[in-house]
Structures are given as structure tokens and as C-alpha cells.
Amino acid sequence: HQRARDRASGGNKAERRREATTETTMRVGLVDVDGKGSGFPNLALMKIAAYHKAQGDEVEWANPMFGKYDKVYKSKVFTFSEDDGDYYDCEVIKGGTGYDIHSKLPAEIDAMQPDYTIYHIDSNLAYGFLTRGCPNKCKWCVVPIKEGKVQPYRDVDDIAVDGRTNLILMDNNI
To answer: pLDDT per residue over 108-118, tens digit each?
Structure first.
């Protein structure tokens, strides 16, 4: 009887389930609260961009006046950076140490290769960390609190990909 119902309804359960879970393309906006002129690209935003592009989503720097988004990510590394006060009529996700010392990217996004195109970074240049954490306990620094003791994070071969041979290692202890 189930097969007859499946045929009458236009397909089997697996096909209906696949159709029901097929997501439409999202429009994603990014906000680098610390500013693109801070000297370093925001690796978290670069990985978020890569993740969403891999899902088939449209990703761009958020424009509060003219952009219509399904989701906006605001990333703030430094607590002293003034918060972004722009309003977006969508889900807004705030992340980074500047907002919450305990915030972290989901493992699936953190594992992504950064999307260097959003910052127009030279095709030979890569940014990354070999380790996370710090052995020092400077009173003014949040790294030991946020990341703990030094621990391996990525291999140099995981950073130097796609012909990117000039590396800027951003580790706190190199």
C-alpha cells in the first residue's frame, strides 16, 4: 500500500525527504567590526565565507542600507573596538573575543580553508596558526584564558595550500 501512496504522491520517501531538506541559496553578509584596516584579515570571517560559499550561498560584505540578507555575521577580535551599530533585518550572529571570550567557530567551519578573495589577498600569501594558546600569563592578555596552554592546531601544509607559499603565522608564541 505504501508504494501505491508513494507513486500517487509523486515519489518515494527518500525523494520527498531530499526535496524537503533542499535548502535555497542564502544571502550572507559579513561585518569585520575591527575594520578591514586593522592590519590583518579576520580569519573567522574568511572561514565563514568559505563555508557558506561551499553551501552555494551568496556572501558579501554587509551593506546596512542596501543589502537584504538571510544572515549577517559580525566578528570582533578586540574588546576595545567600537561595536557595529548597524541594524539588519535578519538573523545576526556576533562572534569573536571582542564579544565573548568563550566564543569559538563550530568545528566544521573552523576546519575550512579561508576564503582569501573577500580581502583580495595576494594568491601567494596565506595566514594561519600552527598552535593556539600561550604559555605566558600577561595580565593584559586574554589568550591564556580563551585558548589555554599551547596546543597544536594546524600543520604548515594545511595553511600553505593552492600555491600559497608565503605564510604569515599568527601564533602567539612564535
So the answer is: 999 999 999 99
Q: How far is CA 84 from CA 29, 31, 98, in A?
A: 13, 8, 12
CA-based radius of gyration for the chain: 20
List all residues 6 or more positions away from 170 whose beta carbon is below 8 Å from its beta carbon. 40, 43, 127, 128, 129
Cell of 64: 546596512
Transcribe the chain into DSSP letters: -HHHHHHHTTS-HHHHHHHHHPPPPPEEEEEETT-GGGSS--HHHHHHHHHHHHTT-EEEE--TTT---SEEEEE---TTSPPP----SSEEEEESTTT-TT----HHHHTSPP-GGGGT--TTEEEE-SEE--S---TT--HHHHH-S-EE---HHHHS-TT--EEEE--TT-
- Beta bridge pairs of residue 73: 30, 93
**How does pLDDT run across 25-83, given as a tens digit for each residue?**
999 999 999 985 567 899 999 999 999 999 999 999 999 999 999 999 999 998 888 99
User: In this structure, are residues 74 and 64 in contact, taking their beta carbons and an 8 Å threshold?
Assistant: no
Question: How many other C-beta atoms can be found within 10 angstroms of the C-beta atom of residue 51?
Answer: 20
